[in-house]
């Protein structure tokens, strides 16, 4: 699956320096007990790191809940306007 994802998104991974110039903020957050998204966010951050794509990865307590969504929105929105 990892290589399939990389192939489907080849333009993103082809030139990491160019990708890092184009993407101002790549922010990923997940609750450590989130069963909805499973291992997806962790695998995504590993793939991005492997290909030197700049991003932020945050793991919080809890799962796929409105409490976490509100926290993520608060934290993420502050970064959009700096």
What does this structure look like?
With 82 residues, the chain is of the alpha+beta class. The chain has helices at 2-8, 10-14, 16-22, 40-50, 66-80, and strands spanning 27-31, 56-60. Strand 1, helix 4 and strand 2 (56-60) form a beta-alpha-beta unit. The mean pLDDT is 93.
pLDDT averaged over residues: 93
Q: In angstroms, what is the radius of gyration? A: 14 Å
What would you call the structural class? alpha+beta
**Largest sheet: spatial strand order:** 1-2
Q: What summary fits the major beta sheet?
A: 2 strands, parallel
DSSP strand tally: 2
Overall 3D form: flat
Question: Beta-strand percentage?
Answer: 5-15%
Contiguous low-pLDDT stretches (5 residues minimum) are none
Terminal CA distance: 35 Å
Helix content: 40-55%
List keywords for this structure.
two-stranded parallel sheet; 5 helices; 82 residues; alpha+beta; flat; 55% helix
Summarize the structure.
The protein is built from five helices and two strands; from the N terminus they run αααβαβα. The chain has helices at residues 2-8, 10-14, 16-22, 40-50, 66-80, and strands at residues 27-31, 56-60. Helix 4 links the parallel strand 1 and strand 2.
Helices, strands, pairings?
Layout: H1 2-8, H2 10-14, H3 16-22, E1 27-31, H4 40-50, E2 56-60, H5 66-80
Parallel strand pairs: 1-2
């Amino acid at each position: 699956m990892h290589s399939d994802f990389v192939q489907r998104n080849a333009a993103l991974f082809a030139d990491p320096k160019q990708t890092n110039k184009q993407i101002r903020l790549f922010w990923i957050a997940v609750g450590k007990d989130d069963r909805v998204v499973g291992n997806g966010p962790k695998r995504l951050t590993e793939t991005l790191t492997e290909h030197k794509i700049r991003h932020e990865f945050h793991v919080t307590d809890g799962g796929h809940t409105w409490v976490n969504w509100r926290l993520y929105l608060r934290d993420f929105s502050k970064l959009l306007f700096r």
